Amino acid sequence: MITNILLFLSTVILLNVYAFRGICILAGMLKNNWLGKIIIRSYFIIDILFIIFSLVWIIIVRYSEWHDFVRYRNYFYISGAFALIYFPRFAFVPFVFINDLKTFFVFLTRKAIYPLKNLFGRLKGFSVAGLLLSSGLLVSTAVFLMVVYGISIGKTNFKINEVEIHFDALPSSFDGLTIAHISDTHLGSFKCKDNVIRGLNKIACQEPDLILFTGDLINNEAVEAAPFIDAFSDLEPPYGKFSVLGNHDLGDYRRWYMIEEKDPDMDAVVEVYRKMGFDLLRNRHVFLYNGGDSIMIAGVDSWGLPPFEKAGDLKEALSPHHNYEFIILLSHDPSHWAEKIQGRENIRLTLSGHTHGMQFGINICGIRWSPAKYYIPYWKGLYRYNGQYLYVNPGFGFVGMPLRIGMPPEITMITLKKE
Question: Do 55 and 180 lie in a common domain?
Fold first, then answer.
């Protein structure tokens, strides 16, 4: 852990220094020397202010009388300030690197290929370097504005995503069944209760037949969810509400000094789910009936690849109906699908969350990308394997960085159709 932190800090420092070098070059190109000095000095002043803010805020949070989960949430201010300051700078770095490559290439060309000296010598002036670094500055400004949007609006700009999935094996009575799928509410991250209620009202307006929640109701402790019990309990779809536990719900993100502390909080988390009206599927299943037809809704506790816990037990969840014809499975971590679920053809649809789409991505003009894809291949949206489907919801809430950029909080409306 310490090694990772030191590696991260070293990378930040190196990128920051490299970006500063580009700022110095750009400032030196300005005819107004006074303006250039202000730009350079502002760079250091902002760094100093960030360090002072972080230290003061850590002391305030550490010695406050706030509840533990409120302290945790208030550390988001530091991560938000970090994103505002350093993400734009990091966006500037590639342009500095390209400029340096150009300079190096010109040097080699002029020394090694004398006949082309005049041609590449023309690339040495302000026209190319200035264009590159000015472009970098524009991109940095755009990134800054994106971060501002992500912090102020993006993280609570709930979107409805409609998905239609066709199955041969779907019982006729359930043709057209609508499911509201949500995941990763992380209620401890919200300062404003109204934002959560606004998202839940969007679900109510869709009038789903069924609500399925795939875990991470909280960040660390059951008390985070207490203010929202009434808002969730007001959602009453005809076929009910079902949920599973996520890795945060299992209490693995807080230091428990004694097991006697963790166990009662786990009981409290389960009780909160019950008060909200969820039927919590802890490695078990239920049946939904319509006329003479039925489908199975099964759920497992969070099952993930290291370092995440493998608490889910698929065998227990399906027992004794392992061969039931049509199963919808709730499993918080989508890595479970690739490792244990693919090939079990009667598990027709698996619903997951967990990834958040890393709360950052691009979804424009058919381009669909997020850094999450390098962490897990099934990171957002609908996937198919030999007639089996997985849908990964990018989350309702947020955690860590208090922002969402290009990855809005999602309420997925899934309609099941019989082929």
Answer: no
